[in-house]
Write a structure and sequence with these properties.
Oligomer: single chain
CATH class of one domain: Alpha Beta
Bound molecules: zinc ion
Family: Belongs to the histone deacetylase family. HD Type 1 subfamily.
Shape: globular
GO biological process, one term: heterochromatin formation
Radius of gyration: 23 Å
Largest sheet: 11 strands, mixed
Number of strands: 15
Protein name: histone deacetylase
CATH architecture of one domain: 3-Layer(aba) Sandwich
Distance between the termini: 42 Å
CATH topology of one domain: Arginase, Chain A
Main location: nucleus
Subcellular location: Nucleus
Helix content: 25-40%
Number of helices: 18
Strand content: 5-15%
Structural class: alpha/beta
């Protein structure tokens, strides 16, 4: 796929809710939603709002979330509160909620907003109403079907990809967070319609998955790509692998839409990370992906030195907009956080780069070998390569049993000195956050990671999970009607533009909810434990039970919701998309009309904030209702 010229302006839609910064994981917890507000405030003060449409996302509904997640898990997230936790002990264990993923005030709403932005962005892309959609509140890539993990509860990325699959035959997921994008990989492990590409630190590090040899299974074999990295990777090394690998992936997979997870914990100086990227190195990935000129959803993810997260995502918003912004930071609500230099860009440290050129080249060529296994020429594709791939499960061509996931039962050290961990450091020396939450300096916080032996429900549960996920994919890709009660599965967003009252820039970011509590979650102690989710699964045995997301049956009972969903094949006219899957011609998507009907669709009303050069409105309300 040829790179497009990098000069054409694209339309950008940006999703942000002024409440997001008020959610609080608890004292000492490294995940701070406040970073999203800091980023928003910074990019407003750079004037970037003038060049994009800003939307307040709808709150994703339970129905939207259960297109991937299990009903009982979402019901649990909806019910649990800090004041009723004791009634949910068993479920908290089962759903891995409590330590890394604490119960906090407004937890479910937080998930709704984060997810709402990503789904709305996907809908916008599907409607070809934007070229790039941005949701920095999303990117929560560790969440599983029925389990919270790594500070993530609801996997907005999986849900957004499911939305994109309604219109796009092939969706590429790219993950540059320092952690493996395990939740997304797992969800699409057995399908060839989504390729997951993750660059991450591997070896003694959370979540423990993402081995080079994890390549997908069944039909999805070779559609999961993992680039394991070592500590200290710098801009040059990252570029040396990212660009050629992504070029090859684009050439071989030819996606018609891209989701880019821009986790900022891969930056130098991250509180939990151990890479050594500058904003420029991180941003180069965004720039590179952007040049392919495909409909792209950009989401956030990790990032725990929050001033750098705000810097990074502001800078990457400017890259999406193709607008240069000054290194001198504009005055903003959080100005003191950026001292002592008050510059946009950060300097990498002098840490050792443990990724030698030889190591990187070796991994790169191994990945290229796998990518070459993908069906490529149209003629080959016509010869039922997909069916062959299914049979390959027992093939001996790969003597190393690449479908076997390697579980690392080792711990993520997450040890840092007090300075690096103190909230006050992250927050510019303050002991009180902008919204008045009192923070105490923490001391002696050794982070450790729990060994996960007891969590090894292992292969069977993962297998089930993967299988059911494919069912979900099928339903999402082929929705015609919802369950008869009007709770449709399809989403159709209506955007309502609203005139802006004259307001100051600051007001847009100071939208705050007084209902957000400042209470700390009791169980969030000074010691944060990270659990490795062990995925010691063998190849999921999906060949018999899997519902092909493309050739879905005409009627399927969705076991998770007990509601019957009528389905048609992705393209009811023929299997053409399947056959054309690897067609050399880039398939710029024209949405198949047969997929756009959703009479029972949940209609989401977004509100646009149109910004003029002189005024920015406060964020106005959004509404969500069930249509028809
Ligand atoms: Zn991360």
């Amino acid at each position: 796929m040829a790179l497009m010229g990098d000069h054409s302006k694209r339309k950008i839609c940006y999703y942000y809710d002024g409440d997001i910064g008020n959610y609080y994981y608890g004292q000492g917890h490294p995940m701070k939603p406040q970073r999203i507000r800091m980023c928003h405030n910074l990019l407003l003060n750079y004037g970037l709002y003038r060049k994009m449409e800003i939307y307040r996302p709808h709150k994703a509904s339970q129905d939207e979330m259960t297109r991937f997640h299990s009903d009982d898990y979402i019901k649990f997230l909806k019910s649990i509160r800090p004041d009723n936790m004791s009634d949910f002990n068993k479920q908290m264990q089962r759903f891995n909620v409590g330590e890394d993923c604490p119960v906090f005030d407004g937890l479910y709403e937080f998930c709704q907003l984060s997810t709402g932005g990503s789904i709305a962005g996907a809908v916008k892309l599907n409607k070809q109403a934007t070229d790039i959609a941005i949701n920095w509140s999303g990117g929560l890539h560790h969440a599983k079907k029925s389990e919270a993990s790594g500070f993530c509860y609801v996997n907005d990325i999986v849900l957004a990809i499911l939305e994109l699959l309604k219109y796009h035959q092939r969706v590429l997921y790219i993950d540059i967070d320092i952690h493996h994008g395990d939740g997304v990989e797992e969800a699409f492990y057995t399908t060839d319609r989504v390729m997951t590409m993750s660059f991450h630190k591997y070896g003694e590090y959370f979540p423990g998955t993402g081995d080079l040899r994890d390549i997908g299974a069944g039909k999805g074999k070779y559609y999961a790509v993992n680039f394991p990295l070592r500590d200290g990777i710098n801009d040059e090394s990252y570029e040396q692998v990212f660009q050629p690998v992504m070029s090859k992936v684009m050439e071989m997979f030819q996606p018609s839409a891209v989701v880019l997870q821009c986790g900022a914990d891969s930056l130098s100086g991250d509180r939990l990370g151990c890479f050594n990227l500058s904003l420029k190195g991180h941003g180069k990935c965004v720039e590179f992906v952007r040049r392919f000129n495909l409909p792209t959803l950009m989401v956030g993810g990790g990032g725990y030195t929050i001033r750098n997260v705000a810097r990074c995502w502001t800078y990457e918003t400017s890259i999406a907009l193709q607008t240069e912004i000054a290194n001198e930071l504009p005055y903003n609500d959080y100005f003191e956080y950026y001292g002592p230099d008050f510059k946009l860009h950060i300097n990498p440290s002098n840490m050792t780069n443990q990724n030698t050129t030889e190591y990187l080249d070796k991994i790169k060529s191994r990945l290229f070998e796998n990518l070459r296994m993908l069906p490529h020429a149209p003629g080959v594709q016509m010869a039922d390569i997909v069916d062959d791939a299914l049979k390959e499960e027992s093939d001996d061509e790969d003597k190393q049993n690449p479908d076997e996931r390697i579980s690392i039962r080792a711990s993520d050290k997450r040890i840092a000195c007090d300075d690096e961990f103190s909230d006050s450091e992250d927050e510019g020396g303050r002991t009180t956050t902008a919204d008045g939450q009192k923070k105490n300096k923490e001391s002696n916080r050794t982070k450790r990671m729990k060994l996960d032996d007891e969590k090894n429900s292992a292969s069977t549960s993962t297998t089930t999970s993967v299988t059911t996920t494919v069912t979900t994919t099928a339903s999402a890709a082929t929705v015609v009607g919802g369950a008869g009660d009007g709770t449709g599965v399809a989403v159709d967003a209506k955007d309502v533009k609203v005139d802006l009252p004259k307001d100051t820039i600051n007001q847009i970011s100071s939208t705050s909810s007084s209902s957000t509590s400042t209470a700390n979650t009791p169980q969030q102690s000074a010691t944060t434990t990270v659990a490795t989710s062990s995925l010691t699964t063998t190849a999921p045995s999906t060949s018999n039970s899997t519902i092909d997301p493309i050739k879905a049956p005409t009627a399927v009972v969705d076991s998770s919701s007990n509601s019957q969903i009528t389905m048609v094949t992705a393209n009811s006219k023929s299997d053409a998309p399947l056959v054309a899957k690897q067609d050399k011609a880039p398939s710029t998507s024209t949405p198949p009309p047969s997929l756009t009907t959703n009479s029972n669709a949940t209609s989401l009303t977004n509100t646009t904030i149109t910004c003029t050069t002189s005024s920015v409105s406060s964020v106005v309300e959004s509404s969500e209702h069930t249509a028809q």
